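Q: Fold this one first, please.
A: Sequence and structure below.
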Amino acid sequence: MPSADEQLPEGTDHMVEGAGVSSDNGNAAEPPISADGRGEDIKGAFFDRVDELRGQANDRARELAQTGKDRAATALDSLVQTVEDAASEIDEKLGSQYGDYARRAAEHIGGFTDSFRDKDIDALFSDARDFVKKSPAVAIGAAAALGFVIARLARSSMPENSGKDAPKA
């Protein structure tokens, strides 16, 4: 740091006291707090912004979860309709006993769909959390099976590569 006697570079008016002096507290994560509390104001504004962004992310996640729940309920309704339609064909081809099995399955799926549609997102997450706590092995197996099905669906929806799997080096 130049002394007060030294010539200042052209275009500067004066030296700022304390400029270039580092603090000895060794904690670089927290800015030094000035006597006027400006450091606390900046820190408070930062955490306020983090809380605001967290709230926005939470709201967006809830919207996406609600959309997914609505789509799943629609898909289950479609499945119920398909099984009910197939029940009459099953009656003709295999007998009424098997058609009745299909109708009962459709009723159970319909009941599940109704209870699923009526539940709040928080209740669904709570139920899922409780299920994982009670049966972690079943939850892991179900997640693996679901991942396998999704991977197969994704692979089947991709266009053919014509044998060009990997670029030649």
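Q: Good. Now the second chain.
A: Here it is, same layout.
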Amino acid sequence: MSSDETRTVVQNGGVNVTSPEGEELQITAEELLIEKQAKEGFASASGYGLTIALNTDLTPELEQEGWVREVVRAVQDTRKKLDLPIEKRIVLTLDTDDELKAAIAAFDSVLRDNVLVTDVRFGEEAGMERVELGGKSVGIHIG
């Protein structure tokens, strides 16, 4: 059944059907097993009389934001290893490819707000820690 047909059956409390032998049968809504299935590209969950659907398609912007959040996590790990105080503002130098540079430029505020960065620079520095983020190698130096 389509979603509209199913909705009508539930609202009416059942459906009348004709068996292959020609017998008229009434099937109540309680006798039906109704399953909700999300459309392609969506995920859904139901409970307490509500159904929520999420669009699961990844846009280029979402991928970029995800990369920047991975950089944030890696920088936080590096800060922790260096035993830096939480409130200390840092100068961050990253060695990465142009694709990640573009993502950082697009989501600069996410990086700055989450790791208290005063300046972000790109290039190589002595003593950089190298990490793998989503298949990308990134050098991190905190100064």
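Q: Anything worth noting on the second one?
A: The radius of gyration is 27 Å.
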